[in-house]
Design goal:
By secondary structure, the chain is mainly β. The chain is built from one helix and ten strands. Strands 1, 2, 3, 4, 5, 6, 7, 8, 9 and 10 form a ten-stranded mixed β-sheet that branches. Strand 2 and strand 3 form a beta hairpin. The radius of gyration is 14 Å and the shape is globular.
């Protein structure tokens, strides 16, 4: 059995034209091929992952290729990470699907099934009742 003790997610390194903090929801940069930027609109289908490392949970397994695919920011593609979240679409409860929020770099509860298709970042594993804060999420891009 192989045990990863560093964290609880699988990440790849990506470059960005922006400084990205851990917990930030990121989307595909439409201008710079292969790079990511902080999300800035609700239900964005370009959602790509969450910058790993928020709330003291470091990346678990880092995939990449030295000199080719080794960007600066570790982005969680799978596993458990903490994400910046907003209650702009209502309080978040465990089990809620999360999508990109209008608040830059944040997730929110996905309630519009038609818009959520292709824009889901994962499933909430903790609650958020306040305006904004961190939510534990099981990353599962859909």
């Amino acid at each position: 059995m192989l045990r990863i003790l560093g964290g609880a997610d699988i990440v790849e390194g990506f470059d960005s034209t922006e400084a990205l903090e851990p917990g930030t929801v990121v989307v595909i940069d439409a201008i710079n091929a292969g790079e990511l930027i902080a999300s800035s609109e609700a239900y964005d289908r370009k959602v790509a992952g969450i910058v790993s490392g928020a709330n003291g949970v470091n990346p678990g397994l880092h995939l990449g290729q030295d000199g080719v695919l080794d960007g600066e920011f570790p982005v969680a593609m799978s596993g458990r990470v903490w994400v910046k979240a907003s209650t702009e679409n209502g309080a978040i409860a465990p089990g809620d699907l999360l999508t990109t929020a209008a608040l830059a770099g944040h997730a929110m509860r996905a309630t519009d099934d038609a818009r959520a298709n292709g824009a889901v970042i994962g499933k909430a594993m903790s609650a958020l009742d306040a305006d904004a804060g961190l939510v534990l999420v099981l990353v599962n891009l859909q």
